[in-house]
Amino acid sequence: MKQLVLLLVILTLRILTPMEALDIVKEEYALNFTKVYLSEDMSDYYYKLDGKDYYLAYEETDEASGNYLIRLYEFVVDDPDLGLGHIVTYGFFWVDPTTADIFEY
């Protein structure tokens, strides 16, 4: 009986996708950012502040914990003619895909 209950708990456990984790961080830290799609199927995207070079994006999944890393950053243009610049990071956020908890890094 205990095994059946455990199996039911495992089957009903909802795991967030990286994009769902990105949405959660956006709602908490970047409400005025707009979604920008990376692909035609609309499965991958990032968020950008309109008229500015501020971004919120999924970076990676930690192999050990399974947590998703979300990065808030600005792209600063150093050479407008070439479009070259550097990134200033304002925050890293780890999101636990099983609890949706956000940990600022």
Provide a short characterization of the protein structure.
This protein is an alpha+beta fold. The chain has helices at residues 2-12, 18-29, and strands at 33-37, 45-49, 54-61, 68-79, 84-95, 102-104.
What's the helical proportion of residues? Answer: 10-25%
Largest sheet: 6 strands, antiparallel
The overall number of domains is 1
What Rg, in angstroms, do the CA atoms define? 17 Å
Give the class from helix and strand content and strand pairing: alpha+beta
Coarse shape: elongated
Report the average pLDDT across residues: 91
Extended strand count: 6
Terminal-residue CA separation: 41 Å
Write up this protein.
The protein is of the alpha+beta class and 105 residues long. The chain has one domain. It contains two helices and six strands. It has a six-stranded antiparallel sheet with strand order 1-2-3-4-5-6. Strand 1 and strand 2 (45-49) form a beta hairpin. The longest helix has 12 residues, at 18-29. It is elongated.
